[in-house]
Prior knowledge:
The protein is an alpha/beta fold. Helix content is about 40%, strand content about 15%. A 7-stranded parallel beta sheet has the order 3-7-8-9-10-11-12, sandwiched between helices. A 3-stranded antiparallel beta sheet has the order 4-5-6. A two-stranded antiparallel ribbon has the order 1-2.
Amino acid sequence: MAIPKFDPKELEKVEFEMFGMKLSNFSYPLPQAEHEKLVFERKPWWQATQATDATMFTPSVIPDNVARALVMEGGAPRAFADHEVNPDMFGVEWEYIATVGGSMVRPGKAFLEDIEDWYDKVKFPDIESWDWAGSAAKNNGAYLNENTFAQIWFQTGFFERLIALLEFENAAVAVLDEDSQVHVHKFFDKLTELYISIFQKVLDTYKAPDGTPYLKAVFFHDDWGSQKSPFFSPDVCEEMIVPYMKRLTDFLHANNVFCELHSCGNNYLQIPNMIKAGWDAWAPQLMNDSYKIYDDYGDKLLIATFPQDVPSAEELATKPEEEIRKAARDYADRTCKAGKSSFYNYYAASYNNIPAFKEELYKQSRINYSK
């Protein structure tokens, strides 16, 4: 499909409401759900915003979404009380902290003292007992419909699951210690089977009247790094995590589902492993050099880039309008290239909250991608 040239009429605002907030978009020349598919296919018409331009879906039927206090679905919004405690799918208790707007594993005694304990102490959930029919009734044709690009957020991946069960120090030892690795492999093997069965249930549950699954993409969480570097070496990651992720992404791709990895930390060294594991996209946190990542790997992985070498958003907002617009054009010219696309990083949403920046970015990205 040839991308039409930018029309200034596209800058006319269209108002809408989401999660009780009044928002606006431009007059897009293509339905947003249709465009999201093109974004993952590396054929965008404009610079989409990572995560939020899709329909974020975290149904309460999956216990981890309640445990992590992040439920986005149809029906009445789910509110969480400060210090409310909810178990995840393995019975690990998470406590919601209102001041940070998220949950953490309740401090105290770890669920497992050693990875070898998982054989006796970890009970895998019976996902058939979860109320999938009730969730379908709440979401199908309402929160999810033919006009949505549903991207389900999966809250706890592989290394993160070890952290939840063992706490961080013992989780790190488990993937590094040769005596423990065999037990991690066996746990991850069974964990992969569980995750695939959950995604199969999602595909079977949330469907349009013609039987087409609403699920279009997955946003899978597995943190691998700190502010300065990865938690473990690329070799360890390739041996201990990549094979299981690849089984999962192969399953999702076979079902026409795009795969986006959410992995916090300075993870430049792990990007080859993300590619080997089959991920289609990654949104690096702001301590990463997104331009370098885009230059080095942007032809193999869809990178959520962000403006660099510019003042903070708060400072930029005080500058003359033309300086703001130039910053947006410079960013678009740097990472919005036909044949090597990117998408806009949600971590840098503060820049896109500046009206002149948002407008100029849309315009320049439309121009660039239609070349």
